[in-house]
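so my prof wants the structure for this chain in the tokens format not the other one, which i didnt know existed until like an hour ago. anyway here's the sequence
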Amino acid sequence: METLMRLRSVSLFASLTPDNLARVAEITSRRLYRQGELLCRAEDESSQTLYVIDSGAAILRQTDLQGEQRYVGHLREGAIIGDDALLFGDAYGFCAQATSTLEALCIRKEDFDRLLEERPEIRQQMALRPLVQERFRARRFSWQERDEPSLLLRRRHWFFLVRQLALPVVTLVLLALVVWLLSLIQINMSLLATVVFVGVAPLLMALWLFADWQNDFYLVTAKRVIHREKVILLYETLDEAPLEKIQNTNVIYGFLGKLLGFGTLKIETASMRGTMVLTYVPDPVSMREIISRRAQFLGSRIRHIEREAIRQELLRQTGRAGPEQELLLPDTPSVQEPAKPSGHLLRRLLPSRPIFALRYVQGNQIIWRKHWVFLIKHIYLALPAFFAITLFLAILLYVWPTAQVWPLLLVALVLWTAAFFWLWWEVEDWRNDIYILTDRVVLDIVKKPLFFSEDRKQASLAMVQNVSLRIPNPLAALLNYGDVVIQTAGPSGALNFFGVSRPADVQREVFRRIEAFNETRRRREMEQRKAELSTWFGVYYEEVLQKPGPSDPPPGRPERGHPSSSGQEGGDQ
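here's what i got, hopefully its the right format
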């Protein structure tokens, strides 16, 4: 009965029917916490338990983006902890510590999921927070990773659409004014013609602007912040910032924003571009809170893994370690640098890579070329010239037995050779411009054929801050090619993958390689720290625990009164 009453007092379950509330009470357990004991940790993803404080109090702390712990607030009787953990399996994102003897009701996600399968109406009856409801509605896109759920999806505030609709409204007024002026000079239009003349153009403009407003969105996932800007049949951009690279977030309100509930959210990273600016964001404070909380969790998880590695090493050195539990992080294969043509002239002339492939793999490298549209731009003059001269040469060879055309034939052969070389040069120039992604670096190589110039830009994946996508024109949207811009914090600034085929896939692959690189680097750094700690603990053990102090007798010469000497004397007696 006490459990039912407490659950009924919680807003999350207050609207459940008595029967459904009783079923929730059946899967609820009680747990007692002493003062100072932790209910949950920020980085804990395994607990997945909702806590309802039945008696006592707790304090909440969070780690900010700079790694400093800060006070969030106090929780008292009736407060809940971890509704996101119960509904989505998320980590808590904060530490909850009992400030007195505390008794909590606990509902495990595993039990709650089984109950939802049995009674799905419970979810509809629960009084979910607005942010939780938004998350349930958030769309998942095909280019998201499998372990990358959508946390929040928002479009610009409706006031932005209202501003845009001012143009069709003004157009409507002007056209109506034109009809009125025509009527003054005795030029009358039928009702149908008036409606078509006045209404069709503004209506089409309004529909276009509404569709354009619907196409643009801000998306927060478990790994990144994404801003899509799309104009139908014209262009599309997709900017993203990995959550681990975010250094600070700021919210700016204007006068109307304060009144209507929208503002500008600035997300600062270490890239040369610096800041991702999201304008007309509805309730930007809650969006900033989700971004900061997820970024803080990612930082806390890294610190937790490092701390656990130190703890295991300390237990191992002191001989108290049980079976070691390896902290698994995804590994990546070794990296091969781009193959360079060597030595012989013939090897330089012969293709060492697929001739017309827009994407291919060599070892651990993924290599892209510009779309074939750019090949056409290279050869649109050389190819017709080559075919024309080839046709002319074929005609000369056909009439050769009956006419003395050898001077003309010699000229045609020279022209054909020049045209062939021109065509080969243009094709090879297109083939040589490549973009390479390895497990450690990203390269942009612009190279002329043979022994001529080569411009190579390279950046470590550790320096990448933002990856954005741009579809520049309707033809690019139709043929699915575009630009992928990789912003870095290094001196090279940005690396531009211009005109690559299927740019969304390229962007996703870059993001995947960055994530794998960061995880591998963390594991390598942890192994290095463990080795350093092993050395420190070994020296401490030798110098402090085993080395005799000033009052200790030398080995083999026990002093009188020392326990070992007493034992010896007793034995002699």
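also thought this was worth mentioning. Residues 160-215 form one domain.
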